[in-house]
Specification:
The protein is mostly helical. The protein contains 34 helices and two strands. The protein has a two-stranded antiparallel sheet. Helix 8 packs antiparallel against helix 9 and helix 11 packs antiparallel against helix 12.
């Protein structure tokens, strides 16, 4: 019987965005600026970089910090901030290097040691991480997070006595720090003291009933103790706190199975597959449950789905053979067992299964031959196990994305037991971080996100080739480019595309160029050009200023109204929303066929929860251009929000036909 409630041996990968951003804002609010003596330009670049970092646009923030480093390479702060961005991108080695460079420039900034400690823990360098935390503790012996993460590193290094001492200091200073109790609870588990572990976990829950990880850790203990009722209660709480995590339902199904609640287990498997249609563990487990209740055809269908996802899953292959045997599909069963025997010629259960298939087909000679081969394999093994080992197939015990989970040390009986019982597989991504999940920087969302197609903006970089049939054209932009008012071509593109380092360099150069050109310019085109560059660099305040100047010089400048509306929309300032809508209305007054203005308005309304207005805007865009694929997709999502599945399916189907590929995934999930 295999369970996967156990926590990873590396729960300390703590490149933690929420904490980083909290520390960064504290860093800024306290006025800790190593570059106070730097020129205004370097300081301004860093300020923009901080703002971009706070928007979670890590790649662009790095570009700003690169600019600051080029201007003033002796400053520590841009290296520190760049390390924060790199850490959020899981570039732990790069973050460690930048922290080291920052420390070389200012060894008294303790937050840098904390950040480097995070990176080193993520790289498995726990000893070096502890060195950083010890330096930090020299400056501030009572710092909560230096103590906390030092204790975690000591736990990882199996320095249990030291970890216990550090946790004791931490919890004496911060007796209401629930993460500390959860982490010490895990330490107690590793030490084998489950009574003390449960006491710490209970304390963590009493301090914060909404903290997820204590419930998961306690469920792990209860499963090992076969306290199924207790484990069920804790998994119920975990699901209540995080209701769309597929693996929680998978784990609860295992618990319900052990409580003989087959209906509940099946319900959990079904919901897991609603959330993740290609979760091979859920498909496999549901197949075995269906096999157990003799729902053979659907059991076979599930196992076939597993093999489509993972053709080398011999666990599924063997069970499909057994199911086919019971279905009377003897030749198909033989084909399943043949696949196993080609890879594992000394896996004797497959020969016994072949013998049964031949017997049921009336071929007694072949049945006896296969049974004899199985007997000889067992006899040779009993005589000399080292010389004649039996094959133990590498059984997949993971989801489609979890890789090969071969159980090399299992006995033959354990392999067969797992072949014929339900297995439960937890998500490595969810259990690795265990108790510190709440403050992790980037949590991978294993669900396929249902996102709107993004709003449109003016850009110097053309959008990549896609399957969408619609060309991003409107009259004023085409005329502007044909007249060559500026030296570059401007495109209309969906926002949010990736920008390469080379393109960032070009954008910074263009921004500098047009900043110089607009000093004495009364040409609206120059101010538009500057605004477009600033929008792409997410310097929205400067962009809006430039576009306001363009509109002041030429009030009927539809392109400038459209771009200023987008800059206001993208700024994230709620006060700008109404102004953005007014700008889009002005653009539509100047060009009633400007479908992109309607589309962007629809996105504003959707994101504000006004689905009726969003629907009207997308529909207005589609009145002008019925082939506008992005508007069809977004209107389909809006219909779903409003509960109109029939209209949603019609729009999503058409959007998929026109090249919006997520449409098909969404249709499948909703069906």
């Amino acid at each position: 019987m295999v369970t996967r409630f156990s926590f990873s041996s590396r729960p300390c990968v703590i490149a933690l965005k929420a904490l980083f951003m909290r520390l960064s804002m504290l860093f800024i609010l306290l006025g800790v600026s190593v570059g106070a003596s730097a020129q205004v330009d370097a300081e301004q670049v860093m300020n923009i970089g901080r703002n971009v970092l706070s928007m979670d646009d890590y790649m662009l923030s790095i570009q700003y910090f690169n600019q600051a480093i080029k201007a003033k390479p002796y400053l520590a702060e841009p290296y520190y901030l760049r390390a924060m961005a790199k850490l959020s991108l899981d570039d732990y080695a790069g973050a460690e290097e930048d922290c080291t460079l920052a420390i070389e420039r200012n060894k008294f900034q303790t937050e840098t040691y904390k950040l480097r400690g995070f990176a080193r823990q993520a790289l498995g360098k726990d000893s070096l991480a502890i060195e950083d935390y010890d330096i930090g503790l020299q400056y501030n012996p009572q710092d909560k997070y230096f103590l906390f993460y030092k204790a975690v590193s000591q736990t990882e290094l199996k320095r249990y006595s030291g970890a216990d001492s550090t946790f004791s200091t931490l919890l004496r200073l911060y007796p209401r720090f629930e993460d500390g109790y959860t982490a010490r609870g895990r330490l107690r588990v590793l030490e084998g003291d489950t009574v003390a572990a449960l006491e710490d976990i209970g304390k963590a829950i009493s301090l914060s009933a909404t903290s997820l990880q204590p419930y998961l850790l306690r469920a792990d203990i209860e499963v090992k103790q076969q306290n199924w009722e207790g484990a069920l209660g804790d998994m119920d709480e975990a699901i209540r706190l995080k209701p769309r995590e597929a693996d929680y339902y998978l784990n609860r199904a295992f618990i319900r199975y052990n409580l003989d609640d087959y209906f509940g287990a099946m319900s959990d498997y079904n919901y897991t597959l609603e959330l993740e249609p290609y979760n091979s563990a859920a498909l496999f487990n549901r197949a075995l449950l269906r096999y157990e209740v003799k729902d053979l055809d659907r059991a076979a269908a599930d196992l076939q789905s597993v093999l489509k996802i993972d053709p080398d899953n011999f666990h599924a292959q063997y069970n499909l053979g057994l199911v086919n045997l019971e279905r009377g599909k003897y030749r198909e069963a033989l084909a399943n067992f043949d696949v196993i025997n080609k890879r594992y010629p000394r896996f004797h259960p497959a020969f016994y299964a072949r013998a049964e298939a031949f017997r049921l087909m009336g071929n007694m000679k072949a049945a006896m031959q296969n049974a004899h081969i199985g007997d000889e394999l067992v006899r040779a093994y009993v005589t000399n196990p080292e010389k004649n080992p039996l094959d133990r197939p590498a059984i997949q015990a993971g989801t489609a994305n979890s890789g090969d989970m071969a159980h090399e040390n299992e006995t033959e009986e354990e392999v067969m037991d797992r072949f014929n019982q339900l297995v439960t597989v937890g998500s490595a991504s969810d259990t690795q971080l265990a108790y510190n999940d709440r403050i992790k920087g980037r949590v991978q969302d294993r669900d396929i996100a249902v996102d709107l197609e993004p709003s449109y903006m003016l850009s110097y970089i053309d959008s990549p080739v896609t399957l969408k049939a619609t060309s991003n054209y409107f009259r004023e932009l085409d005329e502007f480019n044909r007249q060559r008012y500026i030296g570059q071509t401007i495109y209309l593109t969906p926002a949010g595309g990736e920008i390469s380092n080379d393109n960032y360099d070009a954008l910074f150069a263009l921004a500098d160029l047009y900043t110089q050109q607009t000093k004495d310019s009364e040409r609206p085109a120059d101010w538009l050009a500057l605004g477009v560059a600033r929008v792409q660099l997410k310097d929205y305040e400067a962009a809006i200023h430039a576009l306001e100047k363009a509109i002041e010089l030429y009030p009927d400048f539809a392109m400038a109204h459209l771009e200023r509306a987008y800059a206001r929309q993208a700024s994230g300032d709620p006060k700008m929303t109404m102004l953005a809508l007014a700008d889009y209305d002005d653009a539509l007054r100047l060009n009633p066929r400007l479908v992109y203005a309607w589309f962007n308005k629809g996105n504003i309304y959707y994101n504000s929860g006004d689905y009726t207005s969003a629907l009207r805007c997308y529909s207005e865009a589609l009145e002008t251009d019925p082939q506008f694929a992005s508007a069809l997709f977004n209107r389909g999502i809006t219909y779903l929000r409003m509960g109109n599945k029939q209209q949603a399916f019609a729009d999503l189907s058409k959007a998929g036909e026109l090249g919006v590929l997520p449409s098909y995934n969404l249709l499948k999930r909703m069906k």
